[in-house]
Design brief:
- The chain is an alpha/beta fold.
- It contains four helices and three strands; from the N terminus they run ααβαβαβ.
- The chain has a single domain, classed as TIM Barrel, CATH 3.20.20.80.
- The protein has a three-stranded parallel sheet with strand order 1-2-3.
- The mean pLDDT is 80.
- GO terms for molecular function: mannan endo-1,4-beta-mannosidase activity.
- It catalyses: Random hydrolysis of (1->4)-beta-D-mannosidic linkages in mannans, galactomannans and glucomannans.
- Its EC number is 3.2.1.78.
């Protein structure tokens, strides 16, 4: 429908990129284990996302994923690498480029106090993610774009209101 109104508009699904067990083996990349008090369990398959079939439609121009280690309870370095590698590999199957359209890393704020990480962890996560993107671009393996969604020095606590003054970002 969108293409009938705007034929030159690029269209994507805009989902997290979770896999369903019935459609492929890559569901092993789903964020089901918990390392920081996140939800864990089988919740990714209950979201309705089905990465491969959702992106196969003719009207979809490129594949897109999100990556939220804190929200998904997977802050370990290996998870981010596995998540990106699985989706980059699937670009060959889909025949469409991939954009990591939403990613971020929490610093303090809404996480339980014993699970909060500092700006150094955020920097390391962003560095790892951008290095993976650069390697994919240089190797021409499918990942063609990357956009951060959250670049805050410190996340507000859960009690934050619009009238609350946010702390400044660290230098």
């Amino acid at each position: 429908y969108v293409k009938s109104l705007a034929p030159n508009q690029l269209v994507t699904v805009g989902e997290d990129g979770f896999y369903q067990p019935a459609t492929c083996q890559a569901n092993q990349a789903n964020p089901v284990a918990t390392t920081n008090g996140g939800p864990g369990g089988a919740w990714p398959v209950a979201t309705g996302n089905d990465y491969l079939p959702n992106h196969m439609a003719d009207g979809i121009d490129y594949a897109s994923i999100h990556m939220w280690p804190d929200n998904w309870g997977r802050t370990d370095k290996a998870f981010g690498q596995t998540w990106l590698a699985a989706h980059i590999a699937d670009t060959k199957y889909l025949g469409k480029p991939l954009v990591l359209e939403e990613f971020g890393k929490a610093v303090g704020g809404y996480l339980p106090i014993d699970k909060q990480e500092g700006p150094e962890a955020q920097y390391a996560y962003y560095k790892q993610t951008y290095e993976a993107a650069q390697a994919s671009l240089q190797a021409n393996t499918g990942l063609k774009g990357i956009m951060f969604w959250r670049w805050a020095g410190v996340d507000p606590p859960p009690s934050w209101q619009t009238s609350t003054r946010a702390p400044p970002s660290p230098p």
